[in-house]
Amino acid sequence: MKCIYCGYEESKVLDSRSTEESNAIRRRRECLNCGKRFTTYETVESIPVLINKRDGSKQPFDINKVKDGISKACDKRPVSLSQMEQISEEIEKYVQNNLKQEISSANIGNIIMERLKALDEIAYIRFASVFKNFNSKYDYINFINNLD
Ligand SMILES: [Zn+2]
């Protein structure tokens, strides 16, 4: 994306957000040469971001799966709906702002775990048990022993 002021080829993305009406991504950029800022609109040919799963398979990113995982972990726990929504919004933003076409599920899971840890320990452990695929009580014991 050439700088509109000096023609330099490289710029840094300061902010990117999707414009829902036009199916485009609006990006604020800063030229790495002259430092001027400009906005670009890039049309997305609706190529979904792919999530690399631990087993090596790939799936298109689906925010509903994130929401589902969070709400299951928080079932009957003192985590409010808006707190859960905040986490999934953060994940959505992370995926949208990520300039890569593929993101590992571990990346996303780690962010969710970090947020849940700050909110509720039980929700955190529940989420971790699914995310890290706990197989036995020893997995729980190890995990809990390593909690700080
Ligand atoms: Zn420039």
Notable traits:
148 residues; binds zinc ion; single chain; 3-stranded mixed sheet; 3-stranded antiparallel sheet; 43% helix; 6 strands; elongated; alpha+beta
SSE inventory with pairings:
Blueprint: E1 11-19, E2 24-31, E3 37-43, E4 50-52, E5 58-60, H1 63-73, H2 81-97, E6 102-104, H3 105-119, H4 121-131, H5 137-145
Parallel strand pairs: 4-6
Antiparallel strand pairs: 1-2, 2-3, 4-5
Bound molecules: zinc ion.
Could you explain the architecture of this structure?
The chain is α+β, with helices and mostly antiparallel strands and 148 residues long. The protein has 2 domains: 11-43; 50-145. Helices cover 43% and strands 22% of the residues. The chain contains 5 helices and 6 strands, in the order E-E-E-E-E-H-H-E-H-H-H. It has helices at residues 63-73, 81-97, 105-119, 121-131, 137-145; strands at 11-19, 24-31, 37-43, 50-52, 58-60, 102-104. The chain has a 3-stranded antiparallel sheet with strand order 1-2-3. A hairpin with a 5-residue loop joins strand 4 and strand 5. The longest helix is centred in the middle third of the chain and has 17 residues, at 81-97. It is elongated and about 60 Å long. The mean pLDDT is 90. Zinc ion is lined by residues 3, 5-6, 8, 31, 33-34, 36. Residues 3, 5-6, 8, 31, 33-34, 36 line the site of zinc ion (ZN).
